[in-house]
Design brief:
The protein is an alpha/beta fold. The protein is built from 17 helices and eleven strands. It starts with 9 loop residues before the first helix and ends with a helix.
């Protein structure tokens, strides 16, 4: 149930603020829905999706919402002024259903500024509709949550990253209350702005893959696109929100660009979101900083790739003495019931009328509609 424009993830607002400040608001973009879970019949979901979409189209930012956004010092007043008139527009949403495959071709097409906020609410809607049809047992979800919290290390730090694939907004809010009661300062915040505002939590979020993808087709050479995405972030945030996403192409390509002292000294750390072996990745980042004469304990890795608490604890025990570790736990936090939730994403597939790509470190997470562009990108960044 969506009853607030703030029921969205923080990184959508930080990116929207940045693209507004940099003059990219009118750049045409396209996003595509993809379900990584096989065998889903979308016919039943589609009939309910339109009803939920209408909830979005009726929303607007309230004065209270805008006052809250003004309290976040790195969001510009000019940007928030434009949000006063922002509405979700159904003209940007294109949905086609294929009766033969029982699949939906869902796309969001339009200027970057008015389309960027669609992703998280739409994924949440689809996830919630699917969850309703499974008739899961909330007692199982409560038990799974309590068991996950058992044995949490004293200095372990984690945030809720689960808006996109949550079971429901009601369960999302219940688990936030549970975390506040049982974890204290170990629970550092949430990506969800509505819940951050309601419970006086830190809103967590920097950049998503689309930020680096879009730069592949903005006004820069392709070989410079990743560095320019990071440098533009610095132009806007001047050292705030200093966690760089490391896997839009892959870790090798990222670290080649991150060799620039301007980047590896200024950014507070990196986020890992697709490494098959996150512990190996952690050691690699520690060695990278040490090779560049930087105390790795002054830097941070945010791990966010398909985590549950037990996976996160294992990473923590291996690396916490070497580098600051923080964890964003998503689906396994907000949709850990007695059925398998949908693994769904909405990713940018074009910018300025040209294809963009997310390659990542995991083949299952790649996203590109143009094999020719993907091959060219791999050649430019020397990705095998």
């Amino acid at each position: 149930m969506f009853n607030s424009m703030l029921d969205n993830d923080m990184y959508k607002f930080t990116m929207q603020n940045a693209l507004f400040k940099l003059g990219f608001a009118a750049v045409p973009v396209e996003y595509k829905f993809h379900c990584r879970t096989d065998g889903i019949n979308f016919a039943a979901l589609l009939s309910k999706l339109n009803d939920k979409l209408n909830q979005l189209y009726d929303l607007k930012f309230t004065k209270d919402d805008l006052d809250y956004l003004h309290s976040i010092r790195y969001l510009s007043s000019d940007y928030i002024g434009f949000l006063k008139y922002f509405r979700f527009d159904d003209d940007y949403v294109k949905v086609k259903y294929d009766a033969h495959t029982n699949y939906i071709d869902l796309r969001i097409i339009g200027p970057w500024f008015p389309t960027i906020l669609f992703e998280v609410p739409m994924l949440s809607m689809i996830s919630e509709i699917y969850a309703e049809l499974q008739h899961g047992n909330i007692d199982t979800a409560r038990l799974n949550l309590r068991q996950g919290l058992e044995g949490m290390p004293e200095d372990f730090k984690f945030a809720d990253f689960g808006t996109r694939r949550r079971h429901s907004s009601e369960w999302h809010e219940e688990l936030i209350n549970t975390l506040l009661v049982h974890t204290g300062k170990q629970f550092v915040g949430t990506s969800n702005l509505f819940l951050a505002k309601k419970y006086n939590l830190t809103p967590i979020g920097t950049m998503a893959h689309e930020w680096l993808q879009a730069h592949q087709q903005l006004k820069y050479k392709l070989v410079d696109s990743q560095k320019m995405a990071l440098e533009n972030w610095v132009r806007v945030y001047r050292g705030d929100l200093g966690i760089a996403l490391s896997d839009t192409i892959n870790t090798d390509a990222f670290l080649k660009d991150f060799e620039d002292p301007f980047l590896h000294k200024l950014f507070d750390g990196v986020r890992e979101d697709s490494e098959p072996d996150p512990i190996k990745f952690g050691h690699r980042i520690v060695n990278f900083y040490r090779d560049h004469k930087i105390d790795s304990k002054s830097k941070t890795i945010v791990f966010s790739n398909g985590l549950d608490f037990q996976k996160a604890y294992k990473i923590y025990w291996e690396l916490h003495n070497l580098i600051n570790c923080s964890f964003g736990i998503g689906t396994k936090l907000t949709n850990n019931w007695d059925f398998n939730p949908l693994n769904i994403v909405i990713k940018m597939v074009s910018c300025n009328g040209m294809p963009v790509a997310k390659i990542s470190n995991s083949p299952g997470k790649r996203m590109c509609e143009s094999p020719e562009f993907e091959s060219y990108l791999k050649m430019v960044y020397q990705v095998e």
